[in-house]
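Sequence, please.
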């Protein structure tokens, strides 16, 4: 930046950029402070595989909603219609303190189908909805 030191007499048309840069930096800090740092989305919960050489759990209270390729639903291996899913979940979790359900969908399904099952689970006041993937099922 050039700086004029007195003399020369007459009107000068050079703009002092320092106040403009100060304002720009303040605005940048304000926008950085108000913008969300982490992305928002659905909270995902993955079931943890049992430790190796562990005996199978006889009191398995895990609730799994399985969505097949033809979009039919099963609740713990029991077929259930989509319009009855929410009622069935309410009935199952009536006496349980821990309200966790896992959803296992066919890999070729659109997420819209899985999202409807998540909505039914939230409609039944389920606290946490987990998504099961093939890797989690294999224990990896």
């Amino acid at each position: 930046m050039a700086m004029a030191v007195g003399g020369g007499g007459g009107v000068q048309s050079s703009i002092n950029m320092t106040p403009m840069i100060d304002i720009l930096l303040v605005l940048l800090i304000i926008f950085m402070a108000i913008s969300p740092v982490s992305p928002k989305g659905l909270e995902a919960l993955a079931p943890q595989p049992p430790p190796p050489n562990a005996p199978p759990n006889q009191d398995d209270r895990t609730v799994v909603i399985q969505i097949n390729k033809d979009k039919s639903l099963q609740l713990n291996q029991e077929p259930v219609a989509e319009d009855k899913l929410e009622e069935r979940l309410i009935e199952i979790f009536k006496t349980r303190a821990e309200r966790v359900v896992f959803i296992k969908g066919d890999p070729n399904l659109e997420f819209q189908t899985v999202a409807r099952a998540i909505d039914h689970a939230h409609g039944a006041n389920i606290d946490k909805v987990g998504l099961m993937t093939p890797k989690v099922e294999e224990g990896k």
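The first helix runs from residue 18 to 34.
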